[in-house]
Amino acid sequence: MSTEAQIISPIFGCRGVPLKESAFEAHKAFQKAWVVINEQGLVVTEEACPRLKQVETGLDGTHLTIAFPGMFFRLSLTGQPKTQTEAIIEGQSRTVGLEPLLYSQALSQFLGLQVRLVRL
Questions:
Q1: Which domain holds residue 73?
Q2: Taking the model in full, what pTM does it have?
């Protein structure tokens, strides 16, 4: 068994989380489980928005943590958001869950563009 940390990226394009192998196995279902989409429903990549890589993510067992200058919040790992929308993921339209607007507004302000945080 390796003791090296493996990286998991809960939010596509954001900074990943180094986890030991046992923790990685327990949390691998959350690999890229969230994405940031723009007003057209397209996924925002770190190439299109380099500040996305400044958004730090974490997994504490029951919550996804998200941090960037001036903001820290936690999202439950259980259940799906109640509100849904359509997004274009890898060229195909998919129904995704919208996370609370407050989080998306804070993220939009930090990134400098209108975005929504969605759960796949």
A1: 6-119
A2: 0.85
